[in-house]
Amino acid sequence: TTSALTGMSNGEMRKNLHTLDIMKRICKETIVAAGRAGVQIEFDELWAMHMDNIERTAANKTSMLQDLQAARKTEIDTISGGVLKYAQDGEEFPYTRAVYALVKAIDASRGYCSGKRWVTGKLLDHNISEDKERRWVKISKIHRAHCFFMQYRHF
After folding, report:
1. Which of 11, 106, 13 is nearest to 2 (CA)?
2. What pTM value is reported for the model?
3. Do 22 and 16 touch, CB atoms closer than 8 A?
4. Fewer Cβ in 10 A, N or C end of the chain?
5. Sign of torsion over alpha carbons 148, 122, 113, 22
6. Over the stretch 97-118, which tens digit does the pLDDT of each residue have?
7. Is the pLDDT of residue 150 over 50?
8. Is residue 78 scored above 70 in pLDDT?
């Protein structure tokens, strides 16, 4: 999400103190959410994995940045929405909530409005089917924890 909002490649984000700061804050929020999903991971482990991936893919643009540049709907509901699902109130995870809202605003301005909105850990969408909810639950906890922060990959 950071890359999508700044327009930076992975390598550019790695060199920018402002993007590193926001990524670290989102990473810390992700760890809390992952813990609530039953996945225990340490900050240093997740951060090292993220930085290693950014270094290896320095010239790449994230998939969300590519989606925005091509005016396609983003995967923000899956990525940042996956973190917000575990928020205990509307104030928790402020950095994740901010980037989620900004990308959702871009999606909505392009006519991609799913009606989904994460508030206090609950998905508000009167159109979501029980089948879709069951499919989400079937995704492995490790996969969800990894996807929370590794937003530029499709699994």
Report:
1. 13
2. 0.72
3. no
4. C
5. negative
6. 999 999 999 988 888 765 554 4
7. no
8. yes
Mean of the pLDDT values across residues 1-24?
Answer: 95
Cβ of 24: how many Cβ atoms within 10 Å? 14
CA distance 9 to 59: 6
Is the Cβ–Cβ distance between 107 and 73 less than 8 Å? yes
pLDDT grade for 148, boundaries at 50, 70 and 90: very low
Angle (nearest 5°) at CA 109 between 75 and 94: 60
C-alpha distances (whole Å) from 36 to each of 32, 122, 135, 141, 144 are 6, 14, 19, 10, 11
CB-based contacts of 11, cutoff 8 Å, min separation 6: 54, 55, 58, 59
Q: Assign 41 to helix, strand or coil.
A: coil
Q: For residue 24, which of 52, 53, 2 has the smallest C-alpha distance?
A: 2
Q: Which two tokens stand for residue 56?
A: 């290896």
